[in-house]
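Next up, a specimen:

>
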Amino acid sequence: MTERRLARRYDLALPVVVHLAVNKEAPHNGQTRDISTRGVYFTLQKDLIPGTELDFTLTLPAEITQGTEVFVRAHGRVVRVDKDKEPDATTNVGVAAVIERYDIIRGESGRV
């Protein structure tokens, strides 16, 4: 099987804060599994539906950037949701999302 991805994927476990673009409910905290310039895969305790628009913020720690913390604010759309077969309120859901646009913010000004 050949690799179909257009951008290199990096296996990074980073904190992510997800805001659903369609409503003003509280943000959801999760963790990335991997990320590229075109997409991200993360887990969180919120069931999402493919096609859902979302805004999210990732924090790249100074150890990765070799300088100061960097915040990535992005807007994207859910393309796949991986659920466990048995629903459980404490179970994380895996979410694959395409990144439609993003901004990179250096230093303290990016905190949410």
The domain at 15-110 is CATH 2.40.10.220 (Thrombin, subunit H). The beta strands are 15-20, 28-35, 39-44, 53-60, 70-82, 93-106.
